[in-house]
Every structure is written in C-alpha cells, then in structure tokens.
C-alpha cells in the first residue's frame, strides 16, 4: 500500500477512552467513547468508537494497515479487568483513596521492572489482538508510549501553522505534561520533519497535574473537574499573590528546566489551610500561581536551550486555560516565543489520535478541523413532524436578540473537550441574567465563566495579543487572555480577572456560524456570542440529534437548531 494512503487505527482504553483513524497521517475521524455511552470520561476498551470511526472514514476491518494502542507500562491490570473499569464511572474514582494510590504506585514503580514490563507488554498485546479480531481486524498491533502519543498531537497542531512549515523544516519545541503515563509526567521534545526527539522526561515527582487533581478532590469536586479549581482561582479577589493567606511556591520548584513537586507535603499543607478557614479561592489561586511560575519557567528554559521559538503543548495539564494564557503572553516581537499552540484534544482523549500517528510515522501528522466525529443525524419520530423552520442566520439572530437560549446540533461532532459550534448553546454575552439562568439549569457554579465565540476578523476589538501567535489555540478555545481595556462589554463571557476564553472562527471553517456572527454584529454592534457546550450536568457533550433534543428540553432552552432546521421548544 502507498504510505500516503495507508490507513491506521489508534486506540486508547484508559479514562477518556476513544479511537481514531488516520489516512496517510491525516486525522479523518476520531471519537471519545463517552459520547456514545453517555458516561463522562468513559474508560475501557473503546469498541463503540472503533466501529464509529471506521464507519466515518468509510473503511472496513480489512482496510486497517496498523493499529496503535496507547499505554505500555502498568496498564495490564486494567485491561484484564476491563469490564469492571468500564462499568465504574471514572468520576467515582478518588485519586486520594488507597486503591487508586496503590495502582498509581504500581504503574510508576514495579511495572517498569524489566520482567514485569515484558509480561505487561505480552499481555496487553494479546488482549488487544483478541478484541480487535472479534470485529475482524487482523492488522499488526503496536503499543505506543503515552507521552509520545501526546507529543504527536503537538506535532500535528504546530504542523498546521503555515509559517512554521516554512521556517526551519517545521522545527518546534513540544511539551507534554499530565498526571502520569508510562512513568512520565513531564517531557520536552524537539520536533522536526520526520523526527521526534525526546530531550528530557521526568516522572510523577514532576507532576503539577497530580497536585492540581488532589486539590480538586480536597475542595469536594469530582475527578476531571479541575476546571472548577481554575474558576475558583480566577474568582479570588486578592490581586497580589504575595497577599494570599498561603504560599505554595515552596512545594513546586523549577530549576534548570526540571520541575520537582513535593506533593505529599503540599497536600498536607492544603488540608491544614482548609481546616484553618483559608478561603478555597485563595488556596486555588495560590496553587495556580505556583503552577504558572513552574510551567512558564520550564518552557522558557527549554526554548532558550534549544533556540526553538514555536511551541506546542499537549497533555491533561494544558486543559488549564490560565497557564495557557500565561504561555501565550510569551509570544510576539521581542518576546521569547514566536507562536504557542495547544493541541485541541489535549487530554487523554487525544491519545487515540497520537497512537494512530505513531504507527503511521514518519508520515506527517496532520489535524485540520476538529469536527470529525459522528454526524448529528435527525431526531426522528414525532419530534421531526412537529414543525420548525429553516435555520437561517436571520432566524437564529432574531431569537438571540430576543434574549433566547439557542441550542445547536449540526454537522459532525467535535473531537476534544470543547464544543466548537456544532454541539453548542448560544446566547447574548451582554446579558448576565441569561448566564445566571442557564448556569442554574446546568448546575454550573457561578465561578465557571462562559466563553465568547467571535469571527477571526474581530479579534483585535477584544484582545491585544497578536492573533497570529495563537490562532490555532483560539480555534479550539484553549486559553484565557486579557480583554482590551476598551473592548465592548461582554460580562456574561468574561472573567472576574478581566480575561476571557475565546474561540475564533472564519468563513472557510464554518460558513453558517460565521453568517450568524456577522449578522449579530451588524444588528447589535457586539462582536461575540456566548458559546458553551450542549449537554446536561455531568454528562458528556451531546453526540446525536436525539441526545441534543433531550438535553435542550431538560435545560429549558428556547430553541434548537438540528441540522438545517430551527425548532421552537417553548411550544413543545
């Protein structure tokens, strides 16, 4: 088979399990298992998403040339007990409880011993081959290092920037950070055409993400809700970190391009702080400040040491939009970096794509539009006969001007943690009352701000950050940036600290939504709308039209776009 047409399947079977298909290095279909099972952060063998991505790519089991399975070390116990892990929602797992700590200790310790590692490898491959054979896939299976899979997401993201492609043979600095995977938590890589070189890798003692996850649990949030800690930090009313009631910098040290986290001591200090009555938002801000300084210092060091000024990141830590904003601020004329890019599926949901890219390497990893999941389909039955009108830009904007909450379910599902306009709720960002109403219905804490969506052409009206330095990151809504002092007021889509988490679109990417924003701007003078994900509380983003209709009715939306039709829900 011509390598340019080779078809690779990538899989991941931990939390945020999923599957992806690449053709000649281009990601053509990718799905997280949670979107199909409707269980947030679904773990286990991704049998539903494997079927889905093959159908989306128009390929059959015999067309698959190679299969990549992310995770090489310490994964065998979970694979042997896959049905148990599949049946237990990951949000019920407590990383501070002794079973989770014991398994983490095994993965980061004994599992790496040569004899055990060999058993792990043989066992994992046998299990994967058996499960693939059940659906007719007999292609060779390769285990893929967790952080290499993340890094290839960064390679794909930065390769999509034309300026980087033209400069220095696509050389870039790739940084991966997460809780841990295959005994690594923090890594720096040099990417160049046809090559990915590991510069440095450190284990769990370097994991800021594990500490952030620990505070998430200490504050009473569920695993995977680290964004609520970020929201708390942004709600802190103390502008100077030196005035906070607690300082955590001593527990997160960065020197010489290495991070060291004194996690047990930090957790003990945070427990004590909470018992003493220190406000949770102060504690969250203290951890965010310490995290920012360590991660910014790490990337600054490696950029200076390598001379690489184009940086891409991946891994669960970079779901933290605040630290991403700090890194974006390092870009521009006279600054250390030239561009900063976050892979849109930065967490473990992106591992399936990285596994597919690995087995197709050195084919150039390419990711374009992240709308590569299942199509919306139709709602069917009586609902499809209940009327509706054409979902024109004029019809949608008329409802938005009237203060309505409008759901959107059209085209293919987005890959990654963000709804980018195909599975979204839209409303007027000037209306705090709408934000409060929807927040209550979604059981969304007030500390969690909504995000604005705008046309790329309107970027400079809201932000001073040079658009070219972060264009790919803003397309996937992955960083928080300061709003201009003279920006139009969008209180429902801005944070207490004066930042916002923008998503940009252009006409080529999404002509329908671009038309909506264009007409909205013409009629109101406001350059943005609020875009938040279409789902019920603690459920995954909706996949199908039926999911979307159920979520829209449960959350009291006024109208919903399904495909090309706009339905009025108030009369239902």
CATH architecture classification name of the largest domain: Alpha-Beta Complex
CATH superfamily of the largest domain: Carbamoyltransferase, C-terminal domain
How are strands sequenced across the largest beta sheet? 14-24-23-15-17-22-18-21
Strand tally, please? 24
Task: State which percent range the strand residues make up.
Answer: 15-25%
- Give the count of helical stretches: 20
pLDDT averaged over residues: 92
Number of domains: 3
Provide the gyration radius in Å: 23 Å
CATH class value of the largest domain: Alpha Beta
Poorly predicted segments: none
SSE class = alpha/beta
**Major beta sheet summary:** 8 strands, mixed
Shape: globular
> Oligomeric state of the chains?
single chain
CATH topology of the largest domain: DHBP synthase
Distance separating the two termini: 54 Å
- What portion of residues is helical? 25-40%
Task: Tell me what you see in this structure.
By secondary structure, this protein is α/β, with parallel strands linked by helices. The chain folds into three domains: 3-153 and 348-367, Nucleotidyltransferase, domain 5, CATH 3.30.420; 161-342, Nucleotidyltransferase, domain 5, CATH 3.30.420; 374-568, Carbamoyltransferase, C-terminal domain (DHBP synthase), CATH 3.90.870. The protein contains 20 helices and 24 strands. An eight-stranded mixed β-sheet has the order 14-24-23-15-17-22-18-21, sandwiched between helices. Strands 3-2-1-4-5 form a five-stranded mixed β-sheet, sandwiched between helices. Helix 10 (226-234) packs across helix 12 and helix 15 crosses helix 19 (511-524). The protein is globular and about 65 Å long. The model has no long low-confidence stretch (mean pLDDT 92).
């Amino acid at each position: 088979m011509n390598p340019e047409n080779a078809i690779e399947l990538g899989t991941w079977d931990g939390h945020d399990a999923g599957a992806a298909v690449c053709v000649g290095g281009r990601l053509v279909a990718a799905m997280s298992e949670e979107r199909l099972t409707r269980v947030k952060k679904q773990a286990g063998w991704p049998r539903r998403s494997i079927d889905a991505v093959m159908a989306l790519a128009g390929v059959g089991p015999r067309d698959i040339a190679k299969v990549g399975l992310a995770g090489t070390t310490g994964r065998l116990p979970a694979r042997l007990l896959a049905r148990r892990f599949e049946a237990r929602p990951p949000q019920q797992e407590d990383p501070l409880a002794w079973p989770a700590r014991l398994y983490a200790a095994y993965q980061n310790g004994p599992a790496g011993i040569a004899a055990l590692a060999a058993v792990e490898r043989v066992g994992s491959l046998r299990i994967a081959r058996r499960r693939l054979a059940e659906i007719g896939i007999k292609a060779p299976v390769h285990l893929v290092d967790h952080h290499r899979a993340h890094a290839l997401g960064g390679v794909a993201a930065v390769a999509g920037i034309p300026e980087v492609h033209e400069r220095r043979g696509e050389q870039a600095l790739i940084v991966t950070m997460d809780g841990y995977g295959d005994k690594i938590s923090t890594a720096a890589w040099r990417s160049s055409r046809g090559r990915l070189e590991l510069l440095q890798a450190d284990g769990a003692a370097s994991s800021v993400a594990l500490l952030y996850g620990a505070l998430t649990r200490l504050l009473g949030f569920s695993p995977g809700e680290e964004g609520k800690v970020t929201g708390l930090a942004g709600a802190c009313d103390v502008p100077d970190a030196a005035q906070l009631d607690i300082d955590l910098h001593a527990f997160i040290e960065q020197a010489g391009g290495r991070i060291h986290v004194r996690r047990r001591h930090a957790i003990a200090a945070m427990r004590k702080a909470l018992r003493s009555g220190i406000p949770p938002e102060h504690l969250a801000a203290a951890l965010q400040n310490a995290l920012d300084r360590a991660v910014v210092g790490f990337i600054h060091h490696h950029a200076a040491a390598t001379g690489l000024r184009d940086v891409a990141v991946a891994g669960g830590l970079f779901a933290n939009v605040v630290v991403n904003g700090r890194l974006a601020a390092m870009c521009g004329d006279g600054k250390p970096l030239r561009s900063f890019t976050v892979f849109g599926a930065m967490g473990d949901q992106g591992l399936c794509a990285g596994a597919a890219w690995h087995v197709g390497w050195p084919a150039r990893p390419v990711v374009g539009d992240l709308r590569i999941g299942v199509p919306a389909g139709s709602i069917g039955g009586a609902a499809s006969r209940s009327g509706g009108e054409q979902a024109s830009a004029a019809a949608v904007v008329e409802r938005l001007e009237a203060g309505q909450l409008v759901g959107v379910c059209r085209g293919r599902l987005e890959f990654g943690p963000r709804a980018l306009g195909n599975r979204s709720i839209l409303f007027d960002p000037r209306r705090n009352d709408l934000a409060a109403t929807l927040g209550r219905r979604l059981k969304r804490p007030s500390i969690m701000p909504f995000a604005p969506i705008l046309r790329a052409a309107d970027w400079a009206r809201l932000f001073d950050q040079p658009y070219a330095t972060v264009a790919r990151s803003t397309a996937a809504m992955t960083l928080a940036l300061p709003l201009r002092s003279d920006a139009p007021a969008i209180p429902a889509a801005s944070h207490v600290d004066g930042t916002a988490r923008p998503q940009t679109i252009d006409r080529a990417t999404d002509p329908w939504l671009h038309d909506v924003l264009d007409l909205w701007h013409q009629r109101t003078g406001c350059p943005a709308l609020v875009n938040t994900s279409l789902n019920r509380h603690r459920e995954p983003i909706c996949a199908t039209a039926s999911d979307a209709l159920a979520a829209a009715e449960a959350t009291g939306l006024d109208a919903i776009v399904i495909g090309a039709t706009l339905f009025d829900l108030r009369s239902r």
